[in-house]
Amino acid sequence: MTGEPTAHEGRSYLVTGGASGIGRATAEVLAARGARVAIADLDAGGARRTAAELGGHTLPVTLDVADRDSWQAAVAAVETAFGGLDGLVNNAGITRDRTLARMSDQEWRQVVDVHLRGTWLGCQAARRLLSASDAGSIVNISSSGRHGSFGQTNYAAAKAGVVGLTKTVALELARAGVRCNAVAPGAVDTPMIRDVPEPVRENWLATITLGRLARPREIAEVVAFLLSPAASYITAQVIDVNGGELHL
Ligand code: NAP
Q: How many domains does the chain have?
């Protein structure tokens, strides 16, 4: 040990969907490395439990990413508690799968609202504080599903949209010293995919070079790297973390 501080020591982050899956793993990695982490989730009890379990400088925040007022309140709470913000992870997500023939307006709207509008609102709400940081960074979670995913017109469109949004935010905020990137996971073993039928999972595995699902931690490590000053020359990129998906 050299006693050198970690890249995240004393920095402040907000992770949406931080009570579960990839968001929780990201909060855990960041908190373990000395960061202050706001665990922001629609599931208020889950956010509180996660913050209590992770300990360190964690702050549970109730947030509906699809609601502008909710974002204003969340960012204000973070500013009060941490005094600023160095990084934002737009990770919260839902699925409402249905084939094109059967998908309802509501199923379309819910998914696009959470993933695409929610990410846009988050970038807007956090922009001022991130611009005040000496190294502001945004990481948006897209998906390998952005290339097309059966029964997920809503999700694939939203996740493809997140890529265009990411590259545009990167262009607009570069002058303020804020980087913006996307991470696109393949299949990750989280509650989001627990109801996927076994035959579908087997089909997935046949297309993954590494022959297994990702662990949430394996996505979180890439998110943490992109947030850190070590990634200071990376912006407007989409980093695929998918075990080598063969059909892409
Ligand atoms: P997860 O375990 O289901 O966690 C998602 C979290 O987001 C939950 O705590 C959920 O709360 C919360 N959430 C839902 N709607 C919200 C809202 N409106 N505002 C704030 N929080 C909300 O999912 P995950 O697998 O970790 O997914 C995280 C991200 O990775 C998502 O964007 C997902 O699309 C993406 N991704 C996942 C996979 C995968 O295979 N798992 C692959 C590629 C990309 P509730 O439990 O109350 O709904």
A: 1
Instruction: Among 15, 16, 20, name the best residue to mutate to test ligand 1's pocket (greatest count of ligand atoms within 8 A of Cβ).
Output: 20
Please identify, by atom number, the ligand 1 atom nearest to the C-alpha of residue 24: 26
Q: Is residue 248 part of a domain?
A: no
Which backbone phi and psi does 215 adopt, to 5 degrees? -90, 145
Rounded-to-integer distance, Cα 75 and Cα 59, Å:
12
Give the global pTM: 0.97
Q: How far is the CA of 175 from the centre of ligand 1 (A)?
A: 31
Rounded to the nearest angstrom, the distance between the alpha carbon of 66 and the centre of ligand 1 is 13
Could you list the residue range(s) of the whole structural domain that residue 233 is in? 12-241
pLDDT of residue 248: 63
Residue 4 lies in a domain: no
Integer Cα distance of 59 and 81 in angstroms: 8
149 DSSP assignment: -
Find residue 61's DSSP bridge partners: 40
208 contacts 245 by C-beta, under 8 angstroms: yes
How far, in Å, from the CA of 132 to the mean position of ligand 1? 28
Q: Is residue 1, in this structure, part of any structural domain at all? A: no
Q: Is 155 labeled as catalytic in the residue annotation?
A: yes
Catalytic residue among 13, 71, 82, 155, which? 155
> What is the DSSP secondary structure assignment for residue 116, as one 8-state letter?
I
Given this model, what pLDDT does residue 141 score?
99
Does the pLDDT at position 148 exceed 90? yes
Quote the crossing angle between the two packed helices 216-227 and 21-32, to the nearest 10°.
50
Q: What CATH code is carried by the domain that includes residue 135?
A: 3.40.50.720
Give the Cα separation of 205 and 185 in Å (integer). Answer: 14
CB atoms within 10 A of CB 159: 26
